[in-house]
């Protein structure tokens, strides 16, 4: 596939995800961590305009200089930004304006690609496409949050169905010893997966299947949310302050558990994997079960021996730099390193992850209290 | 004009105000005091549906029972409500849905009116129309806030022009004595304007013109925002906490004062009345000038002797019940009485006020720190 | 009594109030509105040092220049101040240090008084003594709060007893007409009681007795705290946010109502007047009773016809300037005027008020949500 | 040394630390992380009373059942607790009361020790003594905060001097390979130091001296606090929100840097190690220097080759359980495990650490934004 074809495929996929939305759905931001879909459409476009067109395409004319202010995210090196919680206050540019901007930039990119970009620029392209794929995943999270927190519980797509992934229940055992982790080979990876290095692991067992809704319900019914012994001190404060009693999107209606899905509100499917739990909940569940969560290295070493990809999986590991990690210079260097404190690593992939985007060395990360992303629980001991 | 004609006129005017909006403009809520225009469209409809159709129109079928939850405002007697700051999180019902709801209710209303409603219901109708006119005014405030706080400063309507009202500069004198205030006659008024009663006024002087931008600029240039002596203690905290240095919508761009208007950003017009000042600022300005604001009674007694209507005018008076005031029973009774604490009375009308909506006995009220509504300053001494 | 004798009497009374405290009680500040007793001792001393000794006593040597920073309250003209909520963080100066400071200033004052101060300075003295009396009253409020919010419920003084004031239950009627209100005569009064002026009152009835605990209990038992109809909108938010279900210091222990008093925790005395209610509660009670609170003018006009002084009494009136009110120049001018927004007037006096401090024209004021001061309810209709 | 002698020594040391305080210093809590010294005195006593006397000493009579409520810290299993930020609101029990309580418990302990406690109870004793030593260290932090944030800058002890520890500037190199970390042997250690296990380390260099004030000043003077590139994203928010421009206790007075020490305010000593920096600052400094902080394993493996103990040292490592870690049952089990999220490991010891309390396997931990404890910076690369 040529770079232009790859570009087209990825860009089109973003628009396909949004094709089920009403104009109004593009605009709102119900909480700080959610961005309006309109912003994702504009921001992924701004990325290509800023780091490729403005930097390398001679004679390129800005679409609108004010858009840098509106669609920048956290790239401190490229000027003042709209503070993050303000995104949902902006009715302009309209959805149509943003799609026009997207079209304008796409056309310029295609022209630019005809010139045959240098290897250095090709690398930036690949980063930009992976960046856009990350925002495709965020689009699913954010859209689900926006519709799933609306009192009318509208469906995103009544025909939506999750990919099927087969799992074998049970545990596999890994021997003590020195293992290598981290990315290897010539394929694209993010800077946080480099460099490959040795780690020493004690012997451990890791589950080949994720925890199901039925299993999680046992934890709820046995009073797990009321017993501080299973929780970190900060987790317990979080449970109490926010009155947490079940995963996000679970609703107990007249004694029956329901679950908001992208198809709308449905009775809880007991055999599905539990989703939308925070690290705090995953840890408390494991603790109640007398087990624990795997570390990211334990996960990576065992990952070839089970099927993964239903949900992101919380690990016990904090998100920290690998030995020898160093930031790329300039704005691109802000990509990962600046988040390496107070977050937890997640491994795997979810139904919202674009096909082929993840891999066994992929390091996703979120704060331990978050759960609007598609996460599940794998146990270790 | 028949009731049906009056109904049609008022309802159409709401839609006309919104005719300049993009779909996205209907949805956002940049601060708690601003409501999304979509909500105003739905709420004014909900008012007629709830208090007239459901209560009096036999066989009326709810458009959608969930809408009560979405479009109720503060009427505690008609069930749980969406907490106010959440309005801007709702992408559904869409703008189109809301206009369909509006159409559905309008049709039912016209049918109901054919039946010849009782005087009691007619009274409710008139209340509903005055209620809708109040929301028309709020629509202007909220739209101006939404567009005027967008970094692109879009115009609401490039052809917008304010009504012209002639003023004679100077002061008139009113003698000491007993005066009557409050509404009299058969015309509609809100419950807070009743009952007419006597007050004793000391002699006073009151200005026949509002303070201009040029005059207010002198206050700014002389350091008024930096000198605590002109401010209430709470006002001074407000100035410091929010870094207030000028009226809302004023922007100093490269040393030149600009003003966001409904036509977009413009150089400041020095001869216009100052607008968008809080009570705190109005008081501080008067204090700096060695004068004071009039009380609401002083305003009412003098109001026939000057032209008013350019802007609402802060008075020194707190919003309190008139002697003999009592709340109407039921939800309608919540209309005014429950707000009679911690607010200030404003008198007059503004360019956003529907024609014929206000009168000299009209009592508008806002918290003293607010200024997104169209307010100005009249001095007394 | 000479000025020196009056000075001695007032200053000694402050120390007597504190004589029941432990050193630790002088230091803490459990909420922002409460000041540590140590601070009152120092602040009242700082007042005499700053406005009299430093201003008029030639050759006076500051006790410690840093104390201005520590003991200033809200007088913006005399330099930066410790922000108010920080007072409880200061372990130094110690209680002993503060009493030494007090002694030093007292000695200088006595020397200064031998010189025979000018009438202007005498006036400042009288203001300072009235100021100290206000802090004596606050000391009672603050001490009661500090001890009454301690889980050990220590008594302030096991022998403490409230002064007895006889009341005749019933209502008296006042005719419609013009009345004069405000202070008159040569005696001391605060600037907010001037100038005497005419007001027009409608006919009204006013109770000659305060509401009792027994009566208030009926309001509680009939569900008054659960029914929004009796409450202002802001009051209802306050009730919900703070889970208010009874007056401050009431504790329901195993089904029996108790009341923390300056003698410690006691079973509720049903015949006593209810105390420690906010304006919001006083208004809701009156509303439930089908009555209302008097205005400050109604209170003042009727006050000679009943005994008052058991508790401060909330009025319906907002705290606003009288006609012709103007601030004194300089720091002293900040005394009252800057608080004239968002507060309610209270009339009367309480058991914490120094004898002779109040009068029928006295205007006390607090925010409507506060209730740590000694307040009760008088009804009107 | 017998257990009774060890007990006496440790308990006396706590009292010695407090011997420089005024009564008032025992009471205040200027921020949530600081506890009033009075509380430390009571809480360490409560620990012995609750976990030893009440549990094992037949016939022991509670000193005061309410004290459990007042002196419990975070032990959720032993009943409701005073919420942490409330500790500074409590004037009672007085300092004298608390010392009496301490005496009462000490006497009971000595009696109990005559009975010859079981090995299980001896273990609890040793835990209790180590617990008290941790509070001795906290006492230094909290006292320094209380006095160092007072506008009078009182000295804790004018004769106070820090222990001298010699350092050789330079870097040592450690080879790649498998190392063992964690506690070994029969001596006391906390549960978080167990169990000893293998780790794989890449080759690294680690400094043999801590960063000095002079070196840190270069970072400040080169604009380090103004350049986001050196900071984590959360750190940058912290810097901006709190206007951080220097370590805690540094004051720039008329262009000269001063430092509040336990002797009072002094000119900054350039050759001393920098102290009172957050993890965020330590990381930013290392980043500016083109280096990094060591991991806790790197530190432990190298620690025999340099002198440590001047200050706690931030490591890059998150505070996580060692392989095989499991919580002790009951309240004691809450000791460490529940904090293993969102915190950073510190290694070494500080001048506030009791002699013999720390060791090379000791794992201290704090949130990355904190800096009132005695911390410094050691670089690695």
Automatic annotation (TrEMBL), chains A, B, C, D:
Residue spans crossing the bilayer: none
Residue stretches making up the DinB-like domain: 7-137
UniProt keywords, alphabetically: Iron, Oxidoreductase
Pathway: Amino-acid biosynthesis; ergothioneine biosynthesis
InterPro entries assigned: CTDL_fold, DinB-like, EgtB, Sulfatase_Mod_Factor_Kinase, SUMF_dom, SUMF_sf
Annotated Pfam families: DinB_2, FGE-sulfatase
Domain Sulfatase-modifying factor enzyme-like: 168-304
NCBIfam families: egtB_TIGR03440 (TIGR03440)
PANTHER family (alphabetical): HERCYNINE OXYGENASE (PTHR23150:SF36), SULFATASE MODIFYING FACTOR 1, 2 (PTHR23150)
Protein name per the record: Ergothioneine biosynthesis protein EgtB
């Amino acid at each position: 596939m040529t770079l232009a074809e790859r570009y087209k495929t990825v860009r089109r996929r973003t628009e396909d995800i949004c094709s089920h939305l009403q104009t109004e759905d593009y605009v709102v931001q119900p909480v700080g961590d959610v961005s309006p879909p309109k912003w994702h459409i504009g921001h992924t476009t701004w990325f290509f305009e800023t780091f490729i067109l403005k930097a390398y395409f001679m004679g390129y004319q800005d679409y609108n200089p004010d858009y840098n202010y509106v669609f920048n995210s956290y790239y401190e090196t490229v000027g003042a930004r709209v503070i993050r919680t303000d995104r949902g206050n902006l009715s302009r540019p309209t959805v149509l304006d943003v799609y026009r901007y997207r079209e304008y930039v796409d056309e310029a990119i295609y022209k630019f690609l005809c010139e045959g970009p240098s290897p250095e620029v090709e690398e930036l392209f690949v980063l930009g496409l992976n960046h856009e794929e990350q925002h495709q995943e965020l689009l699913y999270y954010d859209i689900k949050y926006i519709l799933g927190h609306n009192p009318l519980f509208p469906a995103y797509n009544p025909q939506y169905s999750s990919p099927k992934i087969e799992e074998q229940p049970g545990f596999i055992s890994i021997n003590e010893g020195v293992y290598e982790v981290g990315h290897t080979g010539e394929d694209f990876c993010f800077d946080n997966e480099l460099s490959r290095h040795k780690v020493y692991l004690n012997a451990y067992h890791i589950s080949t299947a994720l925890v199901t809704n039925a299993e999680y319900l046992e934890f709820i019914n046995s009073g797990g949310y009321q017993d501080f012994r299973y929780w970190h001190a900060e987790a317990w404060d979080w449970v109490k302050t926010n009155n947490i009693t079940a995963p996000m999107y679970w609703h107990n209606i007249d004694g029956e558990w329901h679950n908001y899905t992208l198809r709308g509100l449905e009775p809880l499917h007991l055999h599905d994997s539990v989703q939308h739990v925070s690290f705090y909940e995953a840890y408390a569940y494991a603790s109640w079960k007398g087990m624990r969560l795997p570390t990211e290295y334990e996960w990576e070493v065992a990952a070839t021996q089970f099927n993964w990809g239903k949900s992101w999986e919380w690990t016990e590991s904090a998100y920290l730099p690998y030995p020898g990690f160093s930031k790329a210079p300039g704005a691109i260097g802000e990509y990962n390193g600046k988040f390496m404190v107070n977050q937890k690593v997640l491994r795997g992939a979810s139904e919202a992850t674009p096909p082929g985007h993840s891999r066994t060395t992929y390091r996703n990360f979120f704060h331990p209290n978050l759960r609007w992303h598609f996460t599940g629980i794998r146990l270790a001991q």
